[in-house]
Design a protein that fits this description.
Layout: E1 3-7, E2 10-14, E3 25-31, H1 38-47, H2 53-66, E4 68-75, H3 76-92, E5 98-103
Antiparallel strand pairs: 1-2, 3-4, 3-5
Helix pairs in contact: 1-2
């Protein structure tokens, strides 16, 4: 039952049962193309996404072989920043690398 108090004719209802929701996460996706070099993709994964070299290489190979791969999972604002940074670097280096983002599927509580 909420704590109700009267002060100068004002009814106050104090509740502490509010729950904070976890922020929704977003996947940053790299798309394969026939022009962007594998070395550039690895370099982007290492610099923009802060992946260690072995992990960057593994992600790049997955993108190369399957056509699409997850570079990382972040909050919306961080994902947008990483997408913009990757697009800018690709454009500066004259590569058509496509990078997009999509919401991470929501997990139902068990």
């Amino acid at each position: 039952m909420p704590d109700v108090s009267r002060d100068a004719g004002v009814l106050t209802d104090s509740r502490t049962d509010a729950r904070l929701e976890q922020p929704r996460f977003w996947r940053v996706l790299l798309h394969n193309d026939d022009y962007t070099t594998q070395e550039f993709v690895v370099w982007v994964l290492e610099t923009v996404f802060r992946k260690p070299p072995a992990e960057a290489f593994t992600i790049m190979m997955h993108v190369h072989q399957s056509g699409l791969g997850v570079a990382g999972i972040y909050t919306h604002e961080v994902a947008e920043t990483k997408v913009q940074a990757t697009r800018k670097l690709a454009e500066q280096n004259e590569f058509p690398l496509l990078v997009t983002m999509e919401p991470e599927p929501e997990v139902s509580p068990a």
